Known about the structure:
The structure holds 3 protein chains of 3 kinds. Chain A is of the alpha+beta class.
Amino acid sequence: MTGFARLSCAVVQPILTRVVRRIAARHPTLFARLGPHQVTNFLIDPIELPFALHLRPDPDALVFRAVPRDAVPEHGALIRGKFMLLLELMDAEEDGDAAFFSRDLEVSGDTEAVVRLRNALDDVDGSIAEETAEMFGVPGCAILARLRRNYSTQETGAFAP
Amino acid sequence: MSIAELICPAGTPAALRTAVDAGADAVYCGFQDATNARNFPGLNFTPDELAEAVVYAHAKGTKVLLALNTYPPAGKVDLWRQAADTGARLGIDAFIVADMGVADYFAQTHPQVRLHLSVQAAASSPEAIRYYCERFGVKRVVLPRILTIPEIKQVRKEIPCEIESFIFGNHGLMVEGRCSLTNYLTGQSTNMDGVCSPASDVEYKRHADGTMSSQLAGFTIDCFGLDEKAGYPTICKGRYTAPHRADAYYAFEEPVSLNLSRLLPELIDAGVHAFKIEGRQRSKSYVRGVVRAFRQAVDDIRAGRPADMANLVALTEGQKQTQGAFETKKWR
Amino acid sequence: MAVTDMTKLTLGPITYHWSAEDRRDFYARIADEAPVDEVYLGEVICSKRAPFHEPDLPDTIARLERAGKTVILSSLAEVMLKREGKATVDLAAMDAPEIEINNAAGLYARGDRPHRIGPFMNAYNEATIAWMARQGASHVCLPAELPGEAIAVAAKAARDLGLDVEVQVFGRASLAVSARCYHARSHGRTKDNCQFVCEDDADGMPLCTTDKWAILRVNGIQTQSESYVNLLPEMPQLVSVGVTHMRLMPQTVDMVAVAQVFRDALDRKSDSGDAEKALKDICGDVAFSNGFYHGQAGYRRIALATAT
């Protein structure tokens, strides 16, 4: 399993790097809202995917990489939930508070860091997910559309431990 | 004088645009500092962002209100005065104030601006409201969420200004502007710093048995069972024990949200001029969902159709709703 | 130069629902024995309690004034019902004794005749104090959560305008008031049918967190600190910045003894260590706090760097 996880990290890494640089370039005000938490290490854990995501939103030294779950870096804050839920939250299509209170979303560590990240992402017009999908052209948009359809037909249950 | 204005929260520029596009009659916002009671990390507007927001909103016929509703501690009044000056320069349509010194500054320095009285002023009687109207020229009062509809009808007859009433969102229990619970535990003040149970002092602790505690400054405010909905550790929504209550209970209030959609017709009939949706710290999706629903409801009522609000339940904290004091005194 | 012997010690209005008899005994002792200069009377928290003890007011006032104490009548913090509005208007119509106003309804009724500003009026800063002075305020009691540096600026502004300035130095801090009665709620009732359960808790009803930490006290519509504010060590600083009145809030401890400890400290008849020990002996297990004064969490007790 760890071999597979490491392989998938290696495969997605160039994509993640492209994505985060594009988002940073298009939405510079995002960083101002992060304030001192630009240098916080966020661990974002989409529970169905074979890896977690390490985000360090420092405009001078951006980090956004896939990491195997058995080798996560030290982090100031953890955000865990189903992948599509995280995508929807990023675009504020779903309300973070509602997700958290219904226990679909797990948050731990520095709560202020998470609040800042949420507020920073909330101040973005349009959809980061769409923008990202568009980077990969027609196939990207089609994949996103299918993911959304699948997600909306699933039951939302308690997060996996 | 228009009927049933929708006053909608704008925590960020993007949220403001969302609210305007969803049909708000007015949006309210604050600066990124202690001058307003939602001074949350990463929230609110810089002066430049506010300038752009005013342009955007006015182009669509939406008013912009600026919250200056906290209490400057002695020695720091300049911050509030500068905020007042900036807002006046940017063409803000009305300022929401609570502190008498701030209201007096407007009356002396910017006598032409429109003043609204915040819930933070805790003016719940006709006499208290008239005091602010007569001394400072307040044109509208945001009523504390503690009056019943008959009481609102009565107050309306005895005051010269308009009434704005909360209609949806986080339900405040303590008299606003008189609460130092947060300061008691954390050292940051609701009145002076504009924070309530600040995120910097919040921690969620998961236990081995699957329960989760919410803590503020190390104090356990609540503990949630395996399948229980969680909540934010706001002190007045926690569970505590008392000598005759060995099982922890909601000593002040359950984590419910206000939803007065059912009472819209009566509230309009009672003379409420404007309806305020709470939630500057909530997301764009919350704002979009709530504003659209209430826009539709108000338009339906004006057209004589019944209003349907079922889809709003999911957005309420703890997913339970209340109509608070508005229907009955039994709430007290 | 600090003029501590001119600094006045005051007794704040009783916040709890003590019986009429207990109040009579209490004020008799205060009149005869307590080294306080001024005493605030009146019901600030719940208008339902007033009929129990208000009939005794004329006698209590007379007794205290005969003993050389200045009496001030305090008004309700929350005015919502018609009868509460009327009670506030009646109080505002009085010219003797002095009145302390805790609600804007009282300010409205009083107009520009002289009055005192109570701690519920949110006089946080020099601009508000200047405004209140122009409306006839002669004396201001500052909010309990105001930190020391702000107290200094506010006190100077007030003194420059000829106002007296008061700060609470002992007793539970008021942290919140509400339209809802939390005493009644704890017994499954509402304010309208409360059956006066608050009289069972003469020092407030304790609330603990689920991990057994004593955190707050409930007193009817009011929420208070669990700890007693204790600003004994800070008093010289308060005097030096111009505070003229030090308020002791009545708790169920020997308040005559408490007043003596604070009076001796003001008169420099005791050193700070002895005063602190004496207060601890009187108050037993209750925690002391001074966090608000030092700009920290209110429940904390911050030790001063140097003893005076």
